[in-house]
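Give me structure tokens for this 573-residue protein.
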Amino acid sequence: VDPKNYDEFAMFFDKVCETYHHGGGKIHETSWSLDGVEGLPADGVLDLRKLGFEQPLSMRVRVGRNLTSFPLPGLMTKADRINFEKTMLKAFDVLKSDPKYGGTVYSLTPDAAWKEVTGQAKNPNLMSDAKYKELVKAHVMFKDMDADPYLKSAGIASDWPCGRGCYRSADGGFIIWFGEEDQLRIMCMAKGFKLNDVFDRLHTALDSVESIDGIQFATSGKYGYVTSCPSNLGTGMRASVHVKVPNLTSDGTETQAKAAAKPLGLSVRGVGGEHTPIGADGTIDLSPSKRLFITEAEIITKLYNGIKLLKEKEDAATLPALKTKAEIALKANPDNICAQVLLDPEVQTWMATLSPDKLAELALCAKSGLDNVDSGLGCYAVDPKNYDEFAMFFDKVCETYHHGGGKIHETSWSLDGVEGLPADGVLDLRKLGFEQPLSMRVRVGRNLTSFPLPGLMTKADRINFEKTMLKAFDVLKSDPKYGGTVYSLTPDAAWKEVTGQAKNPNLMSDAKYKELVKAHVMFKDMDADPYLKSAGIASDWPCGRGCYRSADGGFIIWFGEEDQLRIMCMAKG
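Here you go.
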């Protein structure tokens, strides 16, 4: 409850720290330099793409810090908490005036409490309840501490929500919580591949904060940076990534993932932090366990190598997990073709020969049918090559569904000689006795060779595909036979992020979207479809989704649905 506790109560805290950290009488040392760190790649770059990751990961590095001029949070009074917040506003003003940071302060301290302590009528940074919930959902702000029994007992949650809030840089990548378990939790976060990016930025930002007048961080000669909880002593650092391990979480819990991570010196949490559940897609929060008697540089390097080793365990668990999921799916629904084929002995033998990457890709193909056991077919190719590379699987799926008997498909639009065709070659429904026009539609699914299939597309792929198709739509629009309009759902912010253009020129309103869905011109919200969500086809909704419609309304092209393109003609007649 006070920075001096680690010295004054050394008889107690030394034994606590030895039991928890196993220091063996060590003195903690601080170092952010990666030079000479064991396990560092030769080029010094901790790039997760080297480990086989193709999708950007959510990366975060944070440290806990406390000022020497206040008690630790467990002993703070309400006045301490608010005066601490007011002290930090000077530091935040320095950051806000710096073009590298800019940003905004968000406070939870009510006006009445602010006035009681500071004498000022209004808290200039008070946020609304809606804003608070928005920031919590985005993992920018911490949750209601008053609901945490551990922090309540420690006195750390007292006087909630006074003296609580955060500073957030203009780009959203640098955040400082104030009034949580430590007076300050200072962090950098980004979605990407290079752990160096968040690590280096945090080091620079920390130097900037500590150089501000009135900011002096509490330290211990033996234990480094002082924190409320002895588990965070030393570096006070937690470096983490959100990583998907669907095979190690196939039972819906993190039990297997924790068992695999613990021998590697890694901790597993839910995606919302400690005491929260894992993601529905098997996403966990992974970080090195050690904070004390280890340097900052060693922690970030340990995270990189830990991800590599855990990925190897995840890959090794793919085949057993697929078999287990298929058995569960088939027991629930004997008509699930995907599960039937996965359990075929010949397919099982073949799967055992696949490389970890290819087995993981096959698992993506099968994911929808195993997640949604009521599926009939239950699988989706994620790359055009899957039908050749995974022929052992897809040939059996297609034979079971289509009953092809080893046939080779042939394409022909010619009606000549087709069995059952009327003598005049005209398929006129009036000949069958219909007197009222019928709604008629013919559509085809098509995919370009230059992009992955929708299940494996990134957000950038989806938007770049849409941009690619705009050239084709321009050709159609300039042709008097077609003319027409493009309607897009891609938000301006996402369009700018990928294309660099400020505005999506074809963005439609929500009202227009609902109108087109009602008229069967546009497809429904894919994010509400559990089959497409499991398959990855609905990911990044609504980016890269929309349609082209000819001037007469009879020719329509959907883009970004189950296939990259659904091309159709419709008429009443």
